[in-house]
Amino acid sequence: MTTVEKNKDTEDSNPILMNGNMNMLLGETTQPPEQVREERKRKLTAAFRLFGKFGFDEGVAGHITVRDPEHEDHFWVNPMGVSFKLLKLSDLLLVNHKGEVVEGDGYLNGAAFTIHSHIHKMRPDVVAAAHAHSLYGKAWSTLGRLLDPITQDACAFYGDHGLLDTFSGVVLEMGEGEALARALGNRKALILQNHGLLTVGKSVDEAAWWYITMERSCQAQLLAEAAGTPKLIDPEVAIRTRAVVGTELAGIFSFQPLYDVICAEQPEILE
Protein backbone atom coordinates (compact mmCIF):
# COMPACT_ATOMS: atom_id res chain seq x y z
CA MET A 1 0.00 0.00 0.00
CA THR A 2 1.37 3.42 -0.97
CA THR A 3 1.54 6.38 1.40
CA VAL A 4 -1.33 8.09 -0.44
CA GLU A 5 -3.48 4.96 -0.23
CA LYS A 6 -2.69 4.56 3.46
CA ASN A 7 -3.68 8.18 4.22
CA LYS A 8 -6.92 7.81 2.32
CA ASP A 9 -7.71 4.60 4.16
CA THR A 10 -7.11 6.37 7.47
CA GLU A 11 -9.38 9.28 6.54
CA ASP A 12 -12.23 7.01 5.44
CA SER A 13 -12.09 4.73 8.49
CA ASN A 14 -13.32 5.35 12.01
CA PRO A 15 -11.86 3.67 15.11
CA ILE A 16 -15.25 3.51 16.86
CA LEU A 17 -17.66 2.88 14.00
CA MET A 18 -16.00 0.12 12.00
CA ASN A 19 -18.43 0.10 9.10
CA GLY A 20 -20.89 2.41 7.37
CA ASN A 21 -20.83 5.21 4.82
CA MET A 22 -19.68 8.35 6.64
CA ASN A 23 -21.15 10.73 4.04
CA MET A 24 -24.58 9.13 4.30
CA LEU A 25 -24.46 9.20 8.08
CA LEU A 26 -23.46 12.87 8.25
CA GLY A 27 -25.38 14.43 5.38
CA GLU A 28 -28.90 15.50 4.41
CA THR A 29 -27.81 16.79 1.03
CA THR A 30 -29.55 14.13 -1.06
CA GLN A 31 -32.98 14.88 0.43
CA PRO A 32 -35.35 17.59 -0.87
CA PRO A 33 -35.74 20.64 1.42
CA GLU A 34 -39.22 19.68 2.63
CA GLN A 35 -37.94 16.31 3.88
CA VAL A 36 -34.93 17.91 5.56
CA ARG A 37 -37.22 20.48 7.20
CA GLU A 38 -39.53 17.79 8.56
CA GLU A 39 -36.59 15.79 9.92
CA ARG A 40 -35.09 18.84 11.60
CA LYS A 41 -38.42 19.74 13.19
CA ARG A 42 -38.87 16.18 14.48
CA LYS A 43 -35.42 16.21 16.05
CA LEU A 44 -36.00 19.69 17.48
CA THR A 45 -39.27 18.64 19.13
CA ALA A 46 -37.64 15.51 20.54
CA ALA A 47 -34.76 17.60 21.92
CA PHE A 48 -37.21 19.79 23.85
CA ARG A 49 -38.96 16.75 25.30
CA LEU A 50 -35.58 15.33 26.35
CA PHE A 51 -34.60 18.65 27.97
CA GLY A 52 -37.89 18.54 29.86
CA LYS A 53 -37.34 14.91 30.89
CA PHE A 54 -33.85 15.75 32.19
CA GLY A 55 -35.09 18.78 34.15
CA PHE A 56 -33.38 21.43 32.03
CA ASP A 57 -36.50 23.63 32.01
CA GLU A 58 -36.75 26.67 34.29
CA GLY A 59 -39.98 28.62 33.85
CA VAL A 60 -39.96 30.22 30.40
CA ALA A 61 -36.14 30.17 30.12
CA GLY A 62 -34.38 28.06 27.52
CA HIS A 63 -34.55 27.62 23.78
CA ILE A 64 -33.26 25.43 20.98
CA THR A 65 -33.28 26.54 17.35
CA VAL A 66 -32.69 24.90 13.99
CA ARG A 67 -32.01 26.70 10.72
CA ASP A 68 -34.58 26.22 7.96
CA PRO A 69 -32.96 24.30 5.06
CA GLU A 70 -34.61 26.39 2.35
CA HIS A 71 -34.78 29.86 3.93
CA GLU A 72 -31.41 29.96 5.67
CA ASP A 73 -32.07 33.33 7.32
CA HIS A 74 -35.03 31.73 9.14
CA PHE A 75 -34.97 29.37 12.11
CA TRP A 76 -37.46 27.19 13.98
CA VAL A 77 -37.83 27.78 17.72
CA ASN A 78 -40.11 26.95 20.65
CA PRO A 79 -42.89 29.38 21.56
CA MET A 80 -42.40 31.13 24.88
CA GLY A 81 -44.52 29.77 27.70
CA VAL A 82 -45.02 26.23 26.33
CA SER A 83 -43.47 23.60 28.59
CA PHE A 84 -40.62 21.55 27.14
CA LYS A 85 -42.45 18.54 28.57
CA LEU A 86 -45.59 19.21 26.50
CA LEU A 87 -44.24 20.82 23.33
CA LYS A 88 -45.35 19.25 20.02
CA LEU A 89 -44.01 19.61 16.51
CA SER A 90 -47.04 21.70 15.52
CA ASP A 91 -46.18 24.25 18.25
CA LEU A 92 -42.87 25.31 16.64
CA LEU A 93 -42.44 28.85 15.31
CA LEU A 94 -40.58 29.84 12.14
CA VAL A 95 -38.80 33.16 12.71
CA ASN A 96 -36.75 35.34 10.34
CA HIS A 97 -33.70 37.39 11.24
CA LYS A 98 -35.88 40.49 11.64
CA GLY A 99 -37.66 38.85 14.55
CA GLU A 100 -40.88 38.27 12.62
CA VAL A 101 -42.89 35.08 13.20
CA VAL A 102 -43.42 33.77 9.67
CA GLU A 103 -45.21 30.54 10.60
CA GLY A 104 -46.90 29.26 13.74
CA ASP A 105 -48.84 30.72 16.64
CA GLY A 106 -47.35 31.74 19.94
CA TYR A 107 -45.07 34.23 21.65
CA LEU A 108 -41.45 34.69 20.58
CA ASN A 109 -38.96 34.85 23.46
CA GLY A 110 -36.95 38.06 23.02
CA ALA A 111 -33.80 36.54 24.49
CA ALA A 112 -34.14 33.52 22.21
CA PHE A 113 -34.24 35.78 19.17
CA THR A 114 -31.34 37.96 20.33
CA ILE A 115 -29.07 35.02 21.10
CA HIS A 116 -29.90 32.67 18.26
CA SER A 117 -30.26 35.20 15.44
CA HIS A 118 -26.70 36.43 16.03
CA ILE A 119 -25.30 32.90 16.23
CA HIS A 120 -27.02 31.87 13.00
CA LYS A 121 -25.85 35.07 11.28
CA MET A 122 -22.22 34.84 12.40
CA ARG A 123 -21.88 31.05 12.09
CA PRO A 124 -23.24 29.84 8.71
CA ASP A 125 -21.95 26.36 9.60
CA VAL A 126 -24.27 26.19 12.62
CA VAL A 127 -27.58 24.47 11.90
CA ALA A 128 -28.80 24.24 15.51
CA ALA A 129 -28.11 25.92 18.85
CA ALA A 130 -29.26 25.05 22.37
CA HIS A 131 -29.40 27.11 25.57
CA ALA A 132 -31.10 26.41 28.90
CA HIS A 133 -30.85 27.23 32.59
CA SER A 134 -30.05 23.70 33.75
CA LEU A 135 -28.93 23.29 37.36
CA TYR A 136 -25.33 22.13 37.05
CA GLY A 137 -24.54 24.30 34.03
CA LYS A 138 -25.63 27.47 35.77
CA ALA A 139 -23.90 26.41 39.01
CA TRP A 140 -20.62 25.85 37.13
CA SER A 141 -21.05 29.12 35.23
CA THR A 142 -20.79 31.11 38.47
CA LEU A 143 -17.15 30.06 38.79
CA GLY A 144 -16.15 31.87 35.59
CA ARG A 145 -14.00 28.91 34.46
CA LEU A 146 -13.72 26.55 31.55
CA LEU A 147 -14.26 22.84 32.13
CA ASP A 148 -11.14 20.79 32.78
CA PRO A 149 -10.34 17.51 30.98
CA ILE A 150 -11.03 15.25 33.96
CA THR A 151 -13.14 12.60 32.19
CA GLN A 152 -13.32 11.04 28.75
CA ASP A 153 -16.65 12.79 28.14
CA ALA A 154 -15.32 16.20 29.17
CA CYS A 155 -12.55 15.83 26.58
CA ALA A 156 -15.19 16.51 23.89
CA PHE A 157 -14.94 20.16 24.97
CA TYR A 158 -11.18 20.38 25.48
CA GLY A 159 -10.00 23.47 23.59
CA ASP A 160 -13.43 23.65 21.97
CA HIS A 161 -15.52 25.74 24.34
CA GLY A 162 -15.35 29.38 25.36
CA LEU A 163 -16.29 31.63 28.25
CA LEU A 164 -18.34 34.82 28.16
CA ASP A 165 -16.87 36.31 31.32
CA THR A 166 -19.40 39.07 31.90
CA PHE A 167 -23.07 39.13 32.87
CA SER A 168 -25.16 42.14 31.95
CA GLY A 169 -28.66 40.83 32.55
CA VAL A 170 -31.18 39.11 30.31
CA VAL A 171 -29.82 39.03 26.74
CA LEU A 172 -32.25 41.39 25.00
CA GLU A 173 -29.99 44.05 23.49
CA MET A 174 -28.52 43.39 20.04
CA GLY A 175 -25.04 44.30 21.26
CA GLU A 176 -25.25 41.60 23.93
CA GLY A 177 -26.21 39.03 21.30
CA GLU A 178 -23.23 40.04 19.18
CA ALA A 179 -20.86 39.78 22.17
CA LEU A 180 -22.16 36.32 22.93
CA ALA A 181 -21.69 35.14 19.34
CA ARG A 182 -18.14 36.57 19.30
CA ALA A 183 -17.30 34.78 22.55
CA LEU A 184 -18.51 31.51 21.03
CA GLY A 185 -16.22 32.00 18.02
CA ASN A 186 -15.81 28.82 15.99
CA ARG A 187 -16.26 26.51 19.00
CA LYS A 188 -19.03 24.02 19.79
CA ALA A 189 -19.97 25.41 23.22
CA LEU A 190 -19.93 28.45 25.45
CA ILE A 191 -20.18 28.98 29.20
CA LEU A 192 -22.17 32.14 29.93
CA GLN A 193 -20.89 33.41 33.27
CA ASN A 194 -23.60 33.60 35.96
CA HIS A 195 -26.08 32.36 33.36
CA GLY A 196 -25.66 28.86 31.92
CA LEU A 197 -24.52 26.86 28.91
CA LEU A 198 -24.92 27.17 25.15
CA THR A 199 -24.01 24.58 22.52
CA VAL A 200 -24.14 24.48 18.73
CA GLY A 201 -23.82 21.90 15.97
CA LYS A 202 -24.36 21.04 12.34
CA SER A 203 -27.56 19.26 13.36
CA VAL A 204 -30.09 19.27 16.19
CA ASP A 205 -28.59 15.92 17.17
CA GLU A 206 -25.19 17.49 17.76
CA ALA A 207 -26.33 20.67 19.51
CA ALA A 208 -28.66 18.77 21.84
CA TRP A 209 -26.12 16.06 22.67
CA TRP A 210 -23.33 18.56 23.35
CA TYR A 211 -25.68 20.33 25.76
CA ILE A 212 -26.68 17.13 27.56
CA THR A 213 -23.13 15.87 27.96
CA MET A 214 -21.78 19.32 28.86
CA GLU A 215 -24.37 19.63 31.63
CA ARG A 216 -23.28 16.22 32.94
CA SER A 217 -19.62 17.21 32.68
CA CYS A 218 -20.36 20.28 34.82
CA GLN A 219 -22.05 18.00 37.35
CA ALA A 220 -19.11 15.59 37.33
CA GLN A 221 -16.54 18.33 37.92
CA LEU A 222 -18.59 19.94 40.69
CA LEU A 223 -18.86 16.55 42.41
CA ALA A 224 -15.18 15.75 41.89
CA GLU A 225 -13.98 19.10 43.25
CA ALA A 226 -16.30 18.78 46.23
CA ALA A 227 -14.64 15.44 47.03
CA GLY A 228 -11.03 16.45 46.37
CA THR A 229 -8.64 17.55 43.64
CA PRO A 230 -9.39 15.89 40.28
CA LYS A 231 -6.51 14.46 38.26
CA LEU A 232 -6.30 16.15 34.85
CA ILE A 233 -5.96 14.18 31.64
CA ASP A 234 -2.73 14.96 29.78
CA PRO A 235 -3.34 17.61 27.06
CA GLU A 236 -2.13 15.38 24.22
CA VAL A 237 -4.37 12.56 25.39
CA ALA A 238 -7.29 14.98 25.77
CA ILE A 239 -6.83 16.14 22.18
CA ARG A 240 -6.71 12.57 20.88
CA THR A 241 -9.80 11.73 22.91
CA ARG A 242 -11.65 14.79 21.56
CA ALA A 243 -10.91 13.54 18.04
CA VAL A 244 -13.11 10.53 18.83
CA VAL A 245 -15.79 11.73 21.30
CA GLY A 246 -16.01 15.35 20.16
CA THR A 247 -16.69 14.92 16.44
CA GLU A 248 -19.84 15.62 14.46
CA LEU A 249 -20.34 11.89 14.00
CA ALA A 250 -20.02 11.27 17.75
CA GLY A 251 -22.64 13.93 18.46
CA ILE A 252 -25.10 12.43 15.98
CA PHE A 253 -24.69 8.87 17.20
CA SER A 254 -24.81 9.78 20.89
CA PHE A 255 -28.14 11.57 20.43
CA GLN A 256 -29.78 8.76 18.45
CA PRO A 257 -30.56 6.39 21.38
CA LEU A 258 -32.14 9.26 23.32
CA TYR A 259 -34.19 10.23 20.27
CA ASP A 260 -35.44 6.67 19.82
CA VAL A 261 -36.42 6.37 23.49
CA ILE A 262 -38.30 9.69 23.71
CA CYS A 263 -40.21 8.98 20.47
CA ALA A 264 -41.22 5.53 21.80
CA GLU A 265 -42.19 6.90 25.22
CA GLN A 266 -43.99 10.01 23.95
CA PRO A 267 -45.21 9.40 20.38
CA GLU A 268 -47.58 12.38 20.55
CA ILE A 269 -44.62 14.76 20.21
CA LEU A 270 -44.79 14.47 16.40
CA GLU A 271 -48.37 15.74 16.24
List the SSEs and their pairings:
Blueprint: H1 3-12, H2 22-26, H3 33-53, E1 63-67, E2 74-77, E3 93-96, E4 101-103, H4 110-122, E5 128-132, H5 135-141, E6 161-164, H6 174-184, E7 189-192, E8 196-201, H7 204-227, H8 235-245, H9 248-265
Helix pairs in contact: 3-7, 3-9, 4-6, 5-7, 7-9
Report the biggest beta sheet as strand number plus sense, adding barrel if it closes. Answer: 8 strands, mixed
- State which percent range the strand residues make up: 5-15%
The dominant shape is: globular
Approximate helicity band: 40-55%
State the secondary-structure class. alpha+beta
Query: Helix and strand succession?
Result: HHHEEEEHEHEHEEHHH
Uncertain runs are 1-13
Number of strands: 8
Give the count of helical stretches: 9
Q: Cα-atom Rg, whole angstroms?
A: 19 Å
Give the terminus-to-terminus CA distance: 53 Å
What is the average per-residue confidence, as pLDDT, rounded to a whole number?
90
Order of adjacent strands in the largest pleated sheet: 4-3-2-1-5-8-7-6
Polypeptide structure, described:
The chain has 271 residues and is of the alpha+beta class. The chain has helices spanning 3-12, 22-26, 33-53, 110-122, 135-141, 174-184, 204-227, 235-245, 248-265, and strands at 63-67, 74-77, 93-96, 101-103, 128-132, 161-164, 189-192, 196-201. An eight-stranded mixed beta sheet has the order 4-3-2-1-5-8-7-6, with helices on both faces. Helix 3 (33-53) packs parallel to helix 7, helix 3 packs across helix 9 (248-265) and helix 5 crosses helix 7. It starts with a helix and ends in a 6-residue tail after the last helix.
